Amino acid sequence: xxxxxxxxxxxxxxxxxxxxxxxxxxxxxxxxxxxxxxxxxxxxxxxxxxxxxxxxxxxxxxxxxxxxxxxxxxxxxxxxxxxxxxxxxxxxxxxxxxxxxxxxxxxxxxxxxxxxxxxxxxxxxxxxxxxxxxxxxxxxxxxxxxxxxxxxxxxxxxxxxxxxxxxxxxxxxxxxxxxxxxxxxxx
Length: 187
Prior knowledge:
Blueprint: E1 2-6, H1 13-24, E2 29-32, H2 51-60, E3 65-68, H3 75-78, E4 85-86, E5 89-94, E6 97-102, H4 110-119, E7 124-126, E8 133-138, E9 141-146, E10 160-165, E11 170-175, E12 181-186
Parallel strand pairs: 1-2, 2-3, 3-4, 6-7, 7-9
Antiparallel strand pairs: 1-10, 5-6, 8-9, 10-11, 11-12
Helix pairs in contact: 1-2
């Protein structure tokens, strides 16, 4: 099973579409860690900010999308997305792995993430919120932050997503523009 992992699209339809076409169209599931449609008061409005177009695109793909509620997601967003926005955590069981996704604004420190991951016995604990990718193992859990395909806060400004290939037992973070694998970890 392959799972596309994304966060912090903030209504940028073309950036999500690029990530989908390059990395997610052959996945079995997409996990979105929140801040799907609204740009947020601290984020710049990019030229492709079009939350209605992004909602339509997500609604029309025929891959299940699991969404964890972000701090910029609102109740009105649930009216235009066919997929429920789960709050505050989304839980997925796939190929024997317990995967927990949360936006990240409620568990900001590594200590908070470690504590929650241990409490829910997560094999893979996915967050977003910081717009910077993370991929590391701490204890029995692999921690993933796919970064953002639209509003990167990496020093080099690369837009990123992640793909978990559970069959190959590997998670990889990719640059969505040039396809480079930036980091990878074995499960």
